[in-house]
C-alpha cells in the first residue's frame, strides 16, 4: 500500500511479500463467492467502527465523512448489482475495503485501524445470525399457526394414535397436530435463547489480543444494537460456538419437519389414506400415469441429512483448532448458509402445504374402530372396579386374544362373553369400549380428552395472536 515502495504483491496485506499470489492459491482460498452475502453487515460494522474511531480522536471528522459516504456508495452499488466482487481480493472485507480506498483514498486506508479481519468476520457473522434468528422465529410462528389452524378445523375428529406404528389408543387429530405446535414452539424458544449469546459485539478484540489504540468497544456495540461486548479477546477470535449452536437449533427444527414429513408420506399412501395433499404440492411419475407422489415431504425428510451434515461439519471443523483464529474457520460459512437456506425453505413450504392439507376423517375414524385401540380403557375400567392393574392387563390381553380368534372387536362381545374374563364387568363397560368414550376419558393434563384439547387449541391461538 505504501506509495514509497511497492513489493511484488498488490494485496492489501502484500507489504512483506516478494511475489504475487499464485492463481491456484487465489482460487483455493477465496471466500468471496459466498461471504459476499454478509456485505450489509460488513458495511454497517465499518461505519460504526469509523464513527467510534472519530469519537476517540483516531480519525478526523473529514475522514469519517469520506468513509461513511464511500461505504454508502459501495452499498448502493452492491444493491444495484453494479459492484464487481473480485476473487483476487479474497473475501467480503477486503473487497469492500479496497473499493473504499479506491474511492476516497487515504481516509479509506485508515478504516482498518484497531481492527482485524478476525474480529470483523466474527462481527459480520454475529450480526447476520442475529437477523436470521428473528427471521426463523417468524417462520416457526407461521408453521405453528398452520398446525393450530388444522387443530381448530378438525376439532373432535378422531384417529388412531400409534406407538411402533401399531395402533395404540384413539386420539384427536387436533391433539396430534398440536404435538407439532409444541415442537416448533420449543424450536422458537431455543432460537430466542441462542440469540442472547450471538448478540455480543466482538469488535475491538482485533486480531486476538485486543487493541493498543484508545478504542471504545462499548459504544460500537451500542451503535450496532448489541446487548454488550464479549469478555475475552482470545476467546472471541477463536469462538464459533454461536454458529454451532444456531445450526444445532436448525438441525432440530429440520428433524421435526422430517418427522411430520414421514407421517405425511405414509398418511397419503393408499394403505393409510388419511390425508389428501393438495395436487399443487405433489408431482407425478414420468412412467406411471396414475401416480401422485408426496415429493415435498420426501424432499424435506431427505434434506434433514444435509442440515445435520452441516452441523457435523461445524463440529469437526472446530474440534482440533488451537486458539485463536485459524483459516480453517473460513469453512464455517458454507454449512451455516446452507443450513439456513435449507431449513427456511423447508419450513415455509411445510407451512403452506399444511394450510392446504385435508384429512380424510371418515377413514381415520374407521381406523380407530379396529385394532383393539380401547383395550387400555377396558383395563382402566377394571382398575376402577378395584382390580390390580397388572391383573387387569392380563384379563384384557386374554379378551383380545379371544376376539382375534373370533374375528371381532372388543365392543362386539356380548356381556356374558366379557364376563368369562372377569366377573366385575357390568353393562356400563360398553361406554368405555367406544372410541369417543375412550378419547373423552383422557382428561389428565396434556391428554387427548376433548375438553383438554379445546383448551389447548384456544391457548395456542391466543399465544399466536390468532384470535
Ligand atoms: N475470510 C476470512 C474468514 O472467513 C476472514 C478472516 C480472515 N482472517 C485472516 N487472518 N486471514 O474466516
Strand order of the largest sheet: 1-2
> How would you characterize the largest beta sheet?
2 strands, antiparallel
The helix/strand series, from N terminus to C terminus, equals HHHHHHHEEHEHEHHEHHEHHHHHHH
Task: Give me the count of strands.
Answer: 6
Q: Shape from CA axes?
A: elongated
Q: How much is the radius of gyration in Å?
A: 31 Å
- Mean pLDDT comes to 95
Bound molecules: arginine
Overall structural class, as computed from helix and strand content, comes to mainly alpha
Number of helices: 20
What's the end-to-end separation, in Å?
62 Å
Task: State the low-pLDDT regions, or none.
Answer: none
Percent helix range: 55-70%
> Per DSSP, what share of the residues sits in E-state strands of 2 or more residues?
under 5%
Q: What does this molecule look like?
A:
With 467 residues, the chain is mainly α. Helices cover 60% and strands 4% of the residues. It contains 20 helices and 6 strands. The strands form 3 sheets. Strands 1-2 form a two-stranded antiparallel sheet. A two-stranded parallel ribbon has the order 3-4. The protein starts with 22 loop residues before the first helix and ends with a helix. The mean pLDDT is 95. The structure holds arginine.
Using brief descriptors, characterize the structure shown:
two-stranded antiparallel ribbon; mainly alpha; single chain; 60% helix; 467 residues; binds arginine; 20 helices; elongated; 6 strands; two-stranded parallel sheet
Amino acid at each position: 500500500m505504501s506509495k514509497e515502495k511497492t513489493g511484488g504483491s498488490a494485496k492489501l496485506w502484500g507489504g512483506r511479500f516478494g511475489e504475487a499470489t499464485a492463481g491456484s492459491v487465489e482460487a483455493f482460498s477465496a471466500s468471496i463467492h459466498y461471504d459476499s452475502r454478509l456485505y450489509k453487515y460488513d458495511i454497517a460494522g465499518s461505519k460504526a467502527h469509523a464513527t467510534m474511531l472519530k469519537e476517540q480522536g483516531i480519525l478526523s471528522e473529514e475522514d469519517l465523512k469520506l468513509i461513511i459516504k464511500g461505504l454508502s456508495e459501495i452499498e448502493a452499488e452492491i444493491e444495484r448489482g453494479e459492484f464487481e466482487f473480485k476473487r483476487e481480493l479474497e473475501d467480503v472485507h477486503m473487497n469492500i475495503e479496497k473499493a473504499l480506498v479506491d474511492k476516497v483514498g487515504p481516509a479509506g486506508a485508515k478504516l482498518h485501524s484497531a481492527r482485524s479481519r478476525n474480529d470483523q468476520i466474527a462481527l459480520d457473522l454475529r450480526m447476520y445470525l442475529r437477523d436470521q434468528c428473528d427471521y426463523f422465529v417468524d417462520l416457526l410462528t407461521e408453521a405453528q399457526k398452520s398446525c393450530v389452524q388444522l387443530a381448530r378445523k378438525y376439532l373432535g375428529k378422531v384417529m388412531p394414535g400409534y406407538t411402533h406404528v401399531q395402533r395404540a389408543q384413539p386420539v384427536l387429530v387436533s391433539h396430534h397436530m398440536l404435538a407439532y405446535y409444541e415442537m416448533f414452539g420449543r424450536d422458537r424458544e431455543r432460537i430466542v435463547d441462542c440469540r442472547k449469546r450471538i448478540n455480543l459485539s466482538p469488535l475491538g478484540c482485533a486480531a486476538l489480543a485486543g487493541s493498543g489504540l484508545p478504542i471504545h468497544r462499548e459504544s460500537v456495540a451500542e451503535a450496532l444494537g448489541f446487548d454488550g461486548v464479549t469478555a475475552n479477546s482470545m476467546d472471541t477470535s477463536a469462538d464459533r460456538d454461536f454458529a454451532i449452536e444456531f445450526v444445532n437449533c436448525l438441525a432440530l427444527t429440520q428433524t421435526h419437519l422430517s418427522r411430520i414429513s414421514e407421517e405425511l408420506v405414509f398418511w397419503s399412501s393408499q394403505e393409510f389414506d388419511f390425508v389428501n395433499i393438495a395436487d399443487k404440492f405433489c408431482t407425478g411419475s414420468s412412467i406411471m400415469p396414475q401416480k401422485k407422489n408426496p415429493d415435498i415431504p420426501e424432499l424435506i425428510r431427505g434434506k434433514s441429512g444435509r442440515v445435520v451434515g452441516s452441523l457435523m461439519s461445524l463440529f469437526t471443523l472446530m474440534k482440533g483448532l488451537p486458539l485463536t483464529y485459524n483459516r480453517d474457520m473460513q469453512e464455517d460459512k458454507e454449512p451455516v448458509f446452507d443450513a439456513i437456506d435449507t431449513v427456511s425453505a423447508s419450513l415455509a413450504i411445510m407451512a403452506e402445504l399444511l394450510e392446504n392439507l385435508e384429512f380424510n376423517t371418515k377413514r381415520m375414524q374407521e381406523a380407530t374402530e379396529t385394532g383393539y385401540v380401547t383395550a387400555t380403557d377396558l383395563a382402566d375400567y377394571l382398575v376402577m372396579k378395584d382390580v390390580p392393574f397388572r391383573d387387569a392387563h392380563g384379563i384384557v390381553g386374554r379378551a383380545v386374544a379371544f376376539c382375534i380368534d373370533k374375528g371381532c372387536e372388543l365392543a362386539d362381545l356380548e356381556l356374558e362373553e366379557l364376563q368369562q374374563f372377569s366377573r366385575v364387568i357390568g353393562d356400563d363397560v360398553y361406554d368405555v369400549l367406544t372410541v369417543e368414550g375412550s378419547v373423552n376419558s383422557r382428561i389428565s393434563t396434556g391428554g387427548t380428552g376433548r375438553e383438554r384439547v379445546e383448551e389447548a387449541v384456544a391457548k395456542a391461538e391466543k399465544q399466536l395472536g390468532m384470535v
